[in-house]
Amino acid sequence: MNEQLPEIEQLGLQAADCQLCTLAARRTQVVWGDGPATARVVFVGEAPGRKEDEGGRPFIGAAGHLLDELLEAAHITRADVYITNIVKCRPPGNRDPLDEEIVACRAYLNRQLQLLHPKVIVTLGRFATHLILQTTEGISRLQGRVFERHGYKVLPLYHPAAAIYDLMKKEPLFAAAPILDELVNGAESASDTRSPVPTQQETTAPAGVGRDAPGVPPAPAEPPQPQFTQETLDIWNA
Ligand code: URA
User: Fold this and answer.
1) Which residues 6+ apart lie within 8 Å of 103 measured at CB?
2) Which of 33, 34, 126, 153 could staple 139 via S-S, CB 3.0–4.6 A?
3) pTM check: above 0.85
4) Residue 117 backbone phi and psi in degrees, to 5
5) pLDDT tens across 101-158, in order?
6) Which atom of ligand 1 is found nearest the CA of 128?
7) Would the CB of 47 count as within 6 Å of ligand 1?
8) 3-class DSSP assignment, residue 36
9) CA gap 88, 57 in Å, rounded
C-alpha cells in the first residue's frame, strides 16, 4: 500500500481485487473512479462499458464524449471533477446493473463520497439517481432539479448514453448546463461554508425522496476495508 496516495486512491487499489459480486469473473479491471481527491463535484454514473473496462477509467467512450460536452457547456473542466459509477465492473453486454451488484458495490461509493465530501453530486441516469436520492420517482421528473441530501446538493441528469441518440433527452440534459454551472461556479459556491461533517437536510425532495431518513451516522473512525460495516452502508441508505 502506498501511504503517499490519497485515501480514496488507496481504497481503489484495494478494490482492484474485489470479488464481492459475480461481475469480477468477466471484468478486465475494476473501474474505480477518476479525478482529484479534492474535487468539489462528483459525477456518478451507472457502470463501466466496454471502453471503460478496457481503459480502466470511467466515461471514456461515446457517453464520455457527450459528458465532456456537457462539462464544457457548464464551464467545468474534467480535471476538476471526480467521476465514478455505482457499479465498478462492467456488466456483460452493457446490460443494466442488477440489484445484487449495486448492493455489493454500494459501500465503495459510500466511502468515496465520504472521503471526497463534495459540494455537488451529479447523478447520471436513473440507477445512480435512485440510489443516491433513495427514490423510485422517474428520472424524467427529477432531471435538472436540485435536491439537498445530507447537506450535499444533488443534481440528477439524464444519462449521457441515453441522450446520444434521443433529442428528447439531449435537449433537457444540455438545458441543465447553466444549473450545473451555477451550482459549481456560482457566487454561493465561492463562499462554501459547509461543515466538515454532512448534516441531514432535505429541502426540495419530492414525495418519496428520502422521507424516512433517520439522520447520518458519524463517520467510522477507521477507514473501512472492502467488507464494509452496516454503519457505512447506512450513510447513504439513510
Ligand atoms: N456509462 C456509465 O454509466 N459509466 C461509464 O463509465 C461509462 C458509460
Assistant:
1) none
2) 126
3) no
4) 45, 60
5) 999 999 999 999 999 999 999 999 999 999 999 999 999 999 999 999 988 999 999 9
6) 3
7) yes
8) coil
9) 10
